[in-house]
Specification:
about 70 residues; about 0% strand
Length: about 70
């Protein structure tokens, strides 16, 4: 069996750190949205800011999909 280079563990740690950060962001999504709005905000402003979170979720799904597809042998 070959020796593991330093690149593989760093890629894994980078992927794991990215996943942990995104999970944390989505768990605290409501607090983050409220922090970005003025003290008196309308429900329309809240809905708009909430919909702006969607690109981050899409990025994570695409990142994980590409990583899984790279590892899968066809």
């Amino acid at each position: 069996m070959g020796q593991v280079s330093g690149l593989v563990p760093s890629r894994f740690l980078t992927l794991l750190a990215h996943l942990v950060i995104v999970i944390t962001i989505f768990w605290t999504r409501d607090d983050n949205i409220r922090a970005s709005l003025p003290p008196s905000f309308t429900s329309d402003q809240y809905k708009k800011e909430d919909s702006d979170v969607l690109p981050a979720f899409t990025e994570v799904i695409m990142f994980i999909t590409v990583f899984v597809l790279k590892k899968k042998s066809f």
